[in-house]
Amino acid sequence: MARRALELGLKTGRDLSDFPDHPSLTRAGGAFVTLHLRGRLRGCIGQLPAAESLVQVVAHCAKSAALDDPRFEPVHADDLPEVEIEISVLSPLADILPEMIEAGKHGLMVSRGWQRGVLLPQVAKEFHWDGARFLEETCVKAGLERDAWKNPSTRIQSFTAEVISEAELRGTAETKPVAPSAEKPGYSSST
User: Fold this and answer.
1) Within a domain: residue 191?
2) Is residue 65 part of a domain?
3) Contacts of 149 by beta carbon, 8 Å cutoff, 6+ apart
4) Residues 43/75, Cβ–Cβ less than 8 Å
5) In this structure, what are the phi and psi dihedrals at residue 164, rounded to the nearest 5 degrees?
6) Whole-number mean pLDDT of the chain?
7) Backbone angles phi, psi at 57, to 5 degrees
């Protein structure tokens, strides 16, 4: 579905509207869709769990990752054959204490006021961060100071993600991570 939404969006600008009726896809959920082009990050947009069906979230995020990620120029239709899609299906958010964070297992959302930052569990694995560093980088992603998590008005929430990757399904393609702190300050990759 993500591939179909991506192709339709890039070729026609339209949204996918024909969705399967399988219970695992029609349940409410959240997901991030990450695009890689020639092994490099090319876009990542997500939506936290809400009332929208998982399949609709994935389709929307696939198109948005290609066309609306403010860190990148829009993906060109000519690049489609080389675009690799990775989908992270998110569990519900839950408040977590800093000492309970397991880097690589938990994804994090740090929020204070209107500022929020979200990092997927696989980011900690890719950069070999421990829980403390992962928490600090999520604060930076939110546009907050590194130690903002110590402030009682800062909320820390975790989630897990089931990751489905085209590259892994085919057993090919190597991706090179891009440090999230190099992204626009305060940008949250969620829509």
Assistant:
1) no
2) yes
3) 98, 110, 135, 136, 139, 156
4) yes
5) -120, 120
6) 85
7) -60, -45
Contact in structure between 107 and 161 (CB atoms under 8 Å): yes
Nearest to 46 by CA among 15, 59, 36, 37: 59
pLDDT digits (tens, 9 = 90+) for 122-140: 999 999 999 999 999 999 9
Which tokens in the block code for residue 57? 């979230």
The answer to whether residues 8 and 41 belong to one domain is yes
**Can you list the pairs that 14-19 forms with residues at least 24 positions away whose Cβ atoms lie under 8 Å?**
15/59, 15/60, 15/63, 16/59, 16/63, 19/53, 19/55, 19/56, 19/59
* Domain membership of residue 108 as a residue range: 94-159
Mark whether 75 and 133 lie in a shared domain.
Answer: no
d(CA 52, CA 26) in angstroms, rounded, equals: 8
**Rounded Cα gap, residues 14 and 113, in angstroms:** 34
Q: Are strands 107-112 and 40-47 parallel, antiparallel or unpaired?
A: unpaired
In sequence order, which residues have a C-beta less than 8 Å from that of residue 155 and are 6 or more positions away?
A: 95, 109, 110, 111, 112
Give the model's pLDDT for residue 23.
60
